[in-house]
Amino acid sequence: MKLRPTAPFSHPAWRLLPGLGIASALLLLATAGLGALLWEASLPDVSQLWGSRYLRTVITFTVWQAFLSVLLSLLVAVPVARMLARQPAFPGRGGLLRLMELSLVLPSIVAVSGLVSVYGRQGWFTGIASDWLNVSWNIYGINGIVLAHVFFNAPLAARILLQAIESAPASQRRAAAQLGLGRWWYWRAVEWPAVRPVLPGLAALVFTLCFTSFAIVMTLGGGPSATTIEVAIYQALRFEFDGSQAALLAVVQLLICGFLWWLAARYGLTASLLPDRRVASHSSRAGRSFWSRLTDGLALGVFALFLVMPLAAILLRGLPGMGSAFFPQGSFSVNPALLDATLRSLAIALPAGLMSVGAALLILASGTATSRSTIRRVTDVTAYLPLMIPPLVLGTGLFLLFRPSLGNSSEGLVLVTLINAMMALPFVLQMLRGPLGRLDSASRQQADQLGILGWYRWRWLHWPRMRRPLALSMAYGTGLSLGDFGVIALFGSPGQPTLPVLLYQQLGSYRVDAAAATGLWLVLLLLLLFSVFNLLGASRLSLRRTANSPRTVQEPEHA
Amino acid sequence: MLTRAFTLLFLTLIAVPAFAQSTPTLTIYTHPSFAADWGPGPAVKDAFEKTCDCQVRYVVLSSGGDILQRLRLEGKSTQADLVLGLDTGTMENSRQTGLLGHHETDLSALDLPINWQDPVFVPYDWGYFAFVYDTEQLPNPPESLDALIAAPDDLKIIIQDPRTSTPGLGLLLWMRHVYGDQASAMWQQLKDKILTTTKSWSDGYYSLFMSGEAPLILSYSTSPAYHMAVDNTDRYQAVAFEEGHYLQVEVAALVQSSDHKELARDFLEFMLTPDFQRHIPLKNVMYPATDLGDELPEVFSHLIQPSEARYFDPKTVTDNRRQWLNEWLDAMTR
Amino acid sequence: MLEVKNLVFAYSGQTDPWSFQFAAAPGQCIAIHGASGSGKSTLLNLLAGFLEPRSGDILWQQESLRNCPPWHRPMTSVFQEHNLFEHLNVETNIGLGIHPGLKLTPQDRQAIREALQSVGLEGFSKRLPGDLSGGQRQRVALLRAILRRQPILLLDEPLTGLDREARDTLRQLLLEQKAKGVLMVLASHDEDDRRILADSTYNL
């Protein structure tokens, strides 16, 4: 028997332990942060949860608005994803995808200003609607909150759903195309099975995001009756120094969101997959007729408009200040403040993105390495902890824990990078979970037999299929950190600001034009980032496609 | 470009401890608008460093509340020598931490609407909370709190939440000072005119007010100074209310556990000199704490002159804030 | 010598477990015969190590393979379909059989080229499996199994569903391997396959 070469890192422990380590670290961090807060304060009086009318309303309202937002976001996202999947040649499709990726990572103050310019009392759209259609609405209140949440989350959801539908096994799609399935049956046979495994996690993700929403809820909520738990936590910590109440509310938040994630991990993600044979993409019959192209086009146009209008408002508002932002006092030297802030932001965001992608891969790998579903589920849910624990609570707890050694500003930036990576982890995980888990059992068996293990398996089986999702998740990870204000504000920054800090500085001192310009610059930078990563993810594939034109030929029938 | 970014980051990381070796470093916790490039921070730093043979380092936290919070969390091990950016709302809580020391500064140069004799806190600027209106949308704004409350409900105003924002708390105290126990009833009447209650002043001012969402916003009486002096527009004006306006004083204090207390005291004294104060009016857009004479920019003479400075002593605020806040919540959510 | 001794297996919920027992020598082909659902594929998967038996043992040259992971067993499987990595081209698919990290010597690459040429697939090395016909794909799968040079080939309906010409080519390839001393375990419905390839039959 010939001695076969063994693959590097092929011992199962290499798959299991790093991810498990990261998950445990997150768990430890969360417990320690929360625990330190409880330790410092007295034990909370749990009875105030049902005793206080205020807390009761806060909790009910938080759940209610999050529920509505999830419902609407998914109601928008599912049809959009289906239409995008069945219209692969829709003009401007690529542009629309970039816009969809953008909305989530926009700093909320920039996005809200855009939304208000369109849908606010003096908004363009409100004007048109009341003049032409005689419809009037008030954005301030639950409408505005849900509208903003749909603006932020529906595109994210649609993007992830599209990725799921597009990766439906081609054999299924082909069969459906041959049978000439109509829309409903195509949905039943192809789209729903592809969407179903990601839907519970997606719903939990959007729910958690809306549940923990803060500034948007306050700005558009209309008054203190629109108060989320995060606001109450902020109030308890910042204004009343009531650590025990903050911890109590944080635990409530953790329990509600954690329970949902647990459900999602239990009921989602069990798709039986067939090997994905790559043949020419078959658009369904449902998408081909003139009529369906027209209606899909119109609906996607409306959706694009919904996303573009606020961005256009941001553009119009930012343009006047753009000149002086880059060339102060009309000089031709590039403004170092804006440029340095940009570079500083990138220096934090790129490593943070890289770290979150790396951590997500390791966590997912450890999920495939064990057959114990409990370990897998715990690892899974743990990775979403950063979304569920208010950063303020975590930060405060960590300060208590690590003082006096924390807060040195030199450690600060490293810490900011780490925490940004941690905050991006849930999103990145959501994007990578499907593609990484998509190794069918036939391929797995072959790989086992051929000894394609460890590094080799990653290199030859995962990496070639994951370029695109990796690029997208890298873009999200980096983009989220680039637009981050919360984390850096929490730990304090040295005098030199990052872009969002610069934006808030300008806002805080009446420099409205400059702030609008910085906001626009941030949006453009994010757009650029997503485009670059999209190109990086696609380049190899498109090269191969042109070098390999027979791929577009129909597969021989006698297969 | 990436290399440059990393070099920059690296330098940021390395630079700070390196300085600490040679000359003493005065670490000041402050908020973003003070430390911004165009704020008073950099100019003040340069001016002070010329006199002291030291380095001034700012640690920027997002608000006065955050400065206090950080101080509480770090306790005696804090690296701050001085905190700058607390105000009359957060003062008393800061004092109660026991972490701040006496300033021993001569306060006779102060020029505030009230008499200031505090042993711990040195004011560096002040201003009034006021409603700023858009003259193009609202040529005739209400001229008193009474008139505002009695105005028809289609007049919309933007305020900030007292739970999360300094001016928001200011309005709460203002109403309380004017109406006493009737404040809750007044809030209920005002409620339907409130378009929304934003988290911070910036959210309301930038996202809503400047987009024309409402013609009236809770802000500072000095806000128009910036628009007049820098934006060259007198479109946005504050309206003087007959009942008088609530006063905000911004203060600094030295940290008891600091190794550089003398330096910190020097800074507090320097704070009341023209070299510091001249940067306040246009860079911080507040009134200077001392009389600048001719140096006070001309636009400041166009600002409203409140008939009365409304002011609770900080201890009263601390003792009652929670109660008042709960009454406000109750009135607003009923 | 490959010896399967009292190998017992049942899927969960299966009341009546299967029990397998047979032996075969190098250079021989043993055909597994039985109706569908009688456990042919299960047996091949047990041999390959994809399934875990309840009891019994598999011996190769007197050594137990029972605790050997699939990648250490001296065998290669070829199924009716799904034998190839669909995202990798023909050459890479074959190459991964020679070295699991595709660290190929020039001689290896030469061998792949010649092998492709010998089965009429010259010039297909950069194609993806999806662009090939079923017969072409099976030829590639078999080439990979052969170039891997393992003493045992596990064949699970490898020729089912192919046209006459493809079958003939593949049978020829398999006969060559047998002549070289490779032991083959063949599960096939096809009377001709068994008649042409097998030396003995094991009835389930």
Automatic annotation (TrEMBL), chain A:
Gene3D superfamilies: MetI-like
Ranges annotated as spanning the membrane: 20-39, 59-81, 102-120, 140-162, 198-220, 246-269, 290-316, 346-369, 381-401, 413-432, 470-494, 514-536
PANTHER family associated with the record: MOLYBDENUM TRANSPORT SYSTEM PERMEASE PROTEIN MODB (PTHR30183), THIAMINE TRANSPORT SYSTEM PERMEASE PROTEIN THIP (PTHR30183:SF9)
GO biological process, one term: thiamine transport
Protein family membership: Belongs to the binding-protein-dependent transport system permease family.
CC terms in the record's Gene Ontology section: plasma membrane
CDD domains xrefs: TM_PBP2
Name of the protein in its database record: Thiamine transport system permease protein ThiP
Subcellular location: Cell inner membrane; Cell membrane
Residue span, ABC transmembrane type-1 domain: 59-264, 342-533
Keywords assigned by UniProt, alphabetized: Cell inner membrane, Cell membrane, Membrane, Repeat, Transmembrane, Transmembrane helix, Transport
Oligomeric and partner information: The complex is composed of two ATP-binding proteins (ThiQ), two transmembrane proteins (ThiP) and a solute-binding protein (ThiB).
InterPro entries attached to this UniProt entry: MetI-like, MetI-like_sf, ThiP_ABC_transpt
Native species: Marinobacter adhaerens
Bilayer disposition of the protein: Multi-pass membrane protein
One of the record's GO molecular function terms: transmembrane transporter activity
Pfam families attached to this UniProt entry: BPD_transp_1 (PF00528)
TrEMBL record, chain B:
GO molecular-function terms, A-Z: thiamine binding; thiamine pyrophosphate binding
NCBIfam families linked: sfuA (TIGR01254), thiB (TIGR01276)
Protein name per the record: Thiamine-binding periplasmic protein
Originating organism: Marinobacter adhaerens
Keywords: Periplasm, Signal, Transport
GO CC terms in record: outer membrane-bounded periplasmic space
Localization (cell): Periplasm
Signal peptide residue numbers: 1-20
Entry keyword annotation includes Transport: yes
Similarity-based family: Belongs to the bacterial solute-binding protein 1 family.
Pfam families, per the entry: SBP_bac_1
Signal is among the record's keywords: yes
From TrEMBL, chain C:
Gene Ontology MF terms in the entry: ATP binding; ATP hydrolysis activity
ABC transporter domain sequence ranges: 2-204
Key words, A-Z: ATP-binding, Cell inner membrane, Cell membrane, Membrane, Nucleotide-binding, Translocase, Transport
SMART domains per the UniProt record, alphabetical: AAA
Listed InterPro entries: AAA+_ATPase, ABC_SmlMolc_Importer, ABC_transporter-like_ATP-bd, ABC_transporter-like_CS, P-loop_NTPase
Lineage top rank: taxon: Bacteria
Pfam family, any one: ABC_tran
Record keyword Translocase present: yes
Name the record gives this protein: ATP-binding cassette domain-containing protein
Organism: Marinobacter adhaerens
